[in-house]
Amino acid sequence: MSEVTRNGGRRAARKRADVLVAACAVVAERGADATRFTDVTAATGVGVSTLQYYFGSREDMLIAVFRFAAQSDFDAVTPRLAGIGDAWERLLVIASHLTGAVGSDTGWRLWVESWRWALRDPELRAEVLGDYRRWHEMLASIIAAGVADRRFGTDAAPMDVARQALALIDGLALPVALGDPQVTGAAAGDLLADALGRLVLLRSPAL
């Protein structure tokens, strides 16, 4: 492959990624059902024919948005965990990210939209369940490490605790995404920290 071909491919990939970032914002604002190619064109300046070239149909574009948003969420939290050794602090990083206690709630709005579409689309449903498995596995590994370090006192299976933890996160993130004035991102973070501490039977760090 020539250098020109490689560079052209990289530019095209970056352009498609830029379009997906903008499309994520459009879908988060308008909802998947109301998003058309023309809405993304208005936000990006990229023509409808180019969007069709990138994605195919409107439905394919929306599924690409859901995939991109899910991967972006995972990619965003991973570097935040780097250098943090304490299992409790790692758990709080994930919790604050997923509840929107930090940053934008765009990702969570897209997550809700992906749930709706997954109910009707078996392929997307499998991907959404796969995303859940990734989060469950990440949480379970942190919980297992916390138990091994005697930071957590729970004797339940780490995967069971991980499923309960993510259920708590989902339950508190929804009112944040809906704009409930009584459950802001910060309030959700505080409530979640308290609930997670009880769930894992948090212990004081060893001196």
Automatic annotation (TrEMBL):
Domain HTH tetR-type: 13-73
Gene Ontology MF annotations: DNA-binding transcription factor activity; transcription cis-regulatory region binding
Segments of the chain annotated as binding DNA: 36-55
Keywords (A to Z) from UniProt: DNA-binding, Repressor, Transcription, Transcription regulation
Record flagged with keyword Phosphoprotein: no
Protein name, entry field: Transcriptional regulator
Organism expressing this protein natively: Paractinoplanes toevensis
